[in-house]
Amino acid sequence: MVDEHSQAFRGMPFKRVFYRLLGGDAGPPLEALTADERTAVVTSDEEGLRLSMPTPVIECGHEFELLLVPAAPVAQFDGELVLRRLNDDGEPVPGSDEVLCRLGYRGPGVSRLRLELPAVARPGPYELQFVGKPRSSTTLRFAAASLPKA
Predict the structure, then answer these.
(1) Which of 34, 51, 81, 120 has the fewest CB atoms within 10 Å, measured from its CB?
(2) pTM, whole model, 2 decimals?
(3) Residue 65 structural domain
(4) pLDDT tens track for 88-107
């Protein structure tokens, strides 16, 4: 998904509130839980870690920004950001996996981690995925384009 706010309506925290607003019951509201219970509920969701970019198209040859957004604050990241080139049908090109960067973080729990990543050299469709701990992310698809010089 593009930009951090695009994920606001996904996951169990939103579903619990939405069902409650419609008169249903999808379990206790997260505000009523202790911090440990809240972490257990949030991390049991199917969406552990998401990637987010401010735009779906980046310019070739320029660094770009990426956010890692965990479902709950995380005190440690250890893994790699893997870049895959896609063909015109949206399928990964065999042998195109490239480790864009190795990522290691230990410190206070963070609700998001902002990264400035190296430039993508060739135009085309790509997908990016964090592979590692605390858990692997969903994939993020985007395009790299060569823009004409003004």
Answers:
(1) 34
(2) 0.67
(3) 46-145
(4) 888 999 998 999 899 999 99
